[in-house]
Amino acid sequence: MELAIFYLFASIAIVAALGMVVLRNAVHSALSLAVVFVALAALYVLLNAPFIAAAQVMIYAGAILILFVFVIMLLSPRVDQGAGALKWQRPLAALCGLVFAVELAIVAASALLPTERGPFTPERLAEIGDVQAVGALLFTDFLLPFEITSLLLLVAMVGVIVLAKKR
Amino acid sequence: MPDAQTLWLISPELVLAIFGLAILLFAIIWRERVYGALAWVALVGLALALAAAVNLWGAHARLFAGMYAVDMFALFFKIVAPIAGILVVLISMDYLRERTRYRGEFFVLLTFAILAMMMMASSANLLMIFLSIEFLSYMSYLLTGFLREDRKSNEAAIKYLLYGAITSAVMLYGLSLLYGISGSLNLGDVALTFSKSADTSVQTLALVATALVLAGLGFKISLVPFHQWAPDAYEGAPTPVTAFLSVGPKAVGFAVLLRFTLTTLPGLPEFANYWTPLLVIISIATMTLGNLVALRQTNVKRLLAYSSIAQAGYMLIGLVAVNLGGSSPFSGLNGVLIYLFAYLFTNLGAFVCVIAIENATGIVEIPEYAGLVKRAPLVAALFIVFFLSLAGIPPTAGFVGKFFVFGAALREGFLVLAAIGVLNSVISVFYYFGVVRAAFFLEPKDTSPIRVAPLVTLSLVVTAAMVLLIAVYPEPLFNLAAWSMAMLK
After folding, report:
1. Which residues does chain A have within 8 Å of residue B119's beta carbon, measured at their own beta carbons?
2. Domain carrying residue A162
């Protein structure tokens, strides 16, 4: 049953990802991307990580995708734009993609990740709570990265305002 | 809440964070009225951070669950970073006055860039490595595009950002594979997994993962083939920022590369069979391409950009030939550290010369340097000193650096690599002295003297003095480098 659901959402994700690349209309591409994000969120739920699933929907489908749509609307690109700008680019991209796909297949076939179970098993998470576990780690072991991220976001925002503000 | 001991050990970072935020606050509250003073606030902050880093010398600790290493190796770079920051602030003040309204924010970004450099030097954890590299990258993109009315500056920032975003993604992929292999983010645990596992599949994956990480670091250090952003970003960025980019990110990029390779790779001895040839090829390509393309440049900022790509190639020789086992004075690692320290003052000095001329006249094209010796004798004379050092000719700091890097290569039997390095140094003399030739032997069209601002003169004298001092009295630097690497083991 679980496997069936996995294959369902995995194929949805792959089809939507293909759609994102293939569709000519930028808004349609953005919408396919939203489908990819939601399908991935479903996979996270299957992996006993509801918090990551929620974060995936909120951050990617919520924030990042909206940003894409904003850019698309601000620039309002024509549907036929971009095609034929660089003739040699298409075959080259196909070749690179093929090489990378073969590479991935070889690595995936020859070397499965020797995963070890971490301390947070599904049973343990059910006991202490998913969000609580993430929160506790964030403010103990990962305090420094957490604080650095807040500084980084602040300064990056200041920089963006300097670059983008009306004079 | 971290205890007092932890806070004491990260005092250089805390000082910079507090001063960065303070400058931001002052700039927001009092705006234009205090812009002149904010540079001095930044200088005080950087000087205090430098003092704090020197004061911590000898410390050896792992903080925050092992992810943050405060050892002499990190402290070496925490001494280098604020020195670079101080020199960049000194040369920025006059440059920015005419060119931007946001001088306050410039020093905020610069202070935080130095903070990010310090964190890169201390990162002993995959997450911290990524986060601090991103931090430094964001600050670099913003500083590069800081002259928003200048199209070249905008173009430089966009190119830098796009290139950086892609290499970051590639590196993150590699880091995630490493996490997948070892189940831990700490470099020490990754190394332990490598050494415990006899499984060939782990080695295959580790090879792919480390190669991807190398791409991200190669971008920061501007190694071939990840160097394409450098000439455009260097040319378009405000010149003090170019000076910063050519030394700051490169130095700490090497810090991360050294810590990463020297911590994780000894776990996989067979790895040397892949890594050493790879690094040798990258090193040769970086030196040769940088030097050959530099020969054709007419813009002095682009010339120095290609020259700094080539310099990264020389430094990489030290990593190729690294051997921490013996008691020889040529361990490779100390060569990289000495080279970086010498390069810091040399390259910054060369850029100070460029800024001195650009501030007064706007000239950045080499043919227009004609007759510089009659218009600005001090700048012209010091150009020779810095170029001698970049080419590695005694009696300058650059010679000391090259001596130790090439020495390590010879000791470890990389004769061809060392020979190519020396050959490249000879090539570099041609383009460095193209500038000198213009400055000394061509007749100027305009003979009016060029006035150099006092702070720029001060930076010129300081960098030139350091370049010569390192050459005539290098012992303190030798000891500094020897201690730093002792603590990495």
Report:
1. 148
2. 130-167
